[in-house]
Amino acid sequence: MTSLGEYALLDQSWHDVVPDAARRMLIAAAQAFADKGYHATTTRDIAARAGMSPAAVYIHYRSKEDLLFQISRIGHERSLKVLTGVQDPDPVDRMARTVASFARWHAEFRTTARVVQYELGALSPEHHAVVAELRRKIETHVRSMVEEGVRSGAFTVPDLKGTSLAVLSLCIDVARWYRPDGTRTPEQIGSLYADLVLRMLRTP
Amino acid sequence: MTSLGEYALLDQSWHDVVPDAARRMLIAAAQAFADKGYHATTTRDIAARAGMSPAAVYIHYRSKEDLLFQISRIGHERSLKVLTGVQDPDPVDRMARTVASFARWHAEFRTTARVVQYELGALSPEHHAVVAELRRKIETHVRSMVEEGVRSGAFTVPDLKGTSLAVLSLCIDVARWYRPDGTRTPEQIGSLYADLVLRMLRTP
DNA sequence: GTCTATATCCGGATAGAC
DNA sequence: GTCTATCCGGATATAGAC
């Protein structure tokens, strides 16, 4: 079950989804997909979580896969926004603040993040292509941040592309292991990760 | 499709599974589960990959879930063995070599690793408890390696448990992003990761 | 041990009333 | 827009011959 707090947070992300019933359905589907996986989730399950009949799914969505696509697309857009939203002239501070918010996002919005990261394979080829483009932008952004730090002399890395991938990977995997009932808050995870990443990248 | 090379590598892990048909079925299932996920895989699919009839699955396994459990159990045992197999008196060298083999394993045996990491939720409660115990051992081992380094003065970390989790997480997530047709070999990923982790942990 | 055939159930999607 | 009822394809697992 989902606490009211998490629901409210989820709601932020889906705020622009209208009408109301469509949004409730999307949130219900995201929770079900995150809990049990896309293929293990039935449309009856989604409808029940949204408090509606099984047929109600098809009023606002063409198919179960369409529901997944909307969650994945909006989730990727949100994640890209969090990643690129940090403005800071100093490459080191920018990296630290970006890693902190990006890792934090994967904890705080773990439900969405899990669907984003682990259900790509269930998308149709056409829908997959759309989110793949967003994923490329995410990778590119991380790499260019590392690159900037290297150019400024603050970072020294053995393998630019590989190291950037590792930084991204570290943040993303938070969605796998994070538990809301754990000892660390998303905020604390963000701080810790910013510190660890700077240690990984900084010129000795 | 799987190259002969990968098959041979897979075969190593499953070497003690007998009889032959049972092993072929297990390998077929592991590949299918890794490709499409447990719930998206049909028993017909597994049987076809093993070159047998759908009913043949039930000669050696009680159910599809039993097949998953065997893969998960053996995979966890293998992964634990790789992690704990490194002997080295120096905490820093030990950490470096362990991270290198553990990360490498998650690339080289990506097929098994993906089932191990991403299909836990499909196990029955009883079977889940068995692998959860193995997972606890893995976490504990990483933490005690970090701890030793801290005791020796070679490592300095802000949060022992959180940092250990991050090291483990970094290695595990290799199974998600690694592609056999990429530019880096599993060996190279191991080396890079050993370097990155030491930078994360070392006392400045 | 392996096969063919099939029982049985379940899930995505639709029809049509309100 | 939402419901109840239902169609129909497909999936797990079993029966029984060889």
What does the model show?
- Chains A, B: One of its GO terms (molecular function) is DNA-binding transcription factor activity.
- Chains A, B: Residues 42-61 bind DNA.
- Chains A, B: Keywords: DNA-binding.
- Chains A, B: This is TetR family transcriptional regulator.
- Chains A, B: Residues 19-79 form the HTH tetR-type domain.
- Two copies of one chain form a homodimer.
- With 204 residues, chain A is mainly α.
- Chain A has a single domain (4-201), classed as Tetracycline Repressor, domain 2, CATH 1.10.357.
- Chain A has helices at residues 4-13, 20-36, 43-49, 57-60, 64-84, 91-108, 110-118, 125-152, 160-172, 174-177, 186-201.
- In chain A, α6 (91-108) packs across α7 (110-118) and α6 (91-108) runs antiparallel to α11.
- The longest helix of chain A has 28 residues, at 125-152.
- The first copy, chain A, starts with a helix and ends with a helix.
- Mean pLDDT of chain A is 95; it is low at 1-5.
- Chains A and B meet through α9, α10 and α11 of A and α9, α10 and α11 of B.
- The first copy, chain A, binds a DNA duplex (18 and 18 nucleotides) through α4.
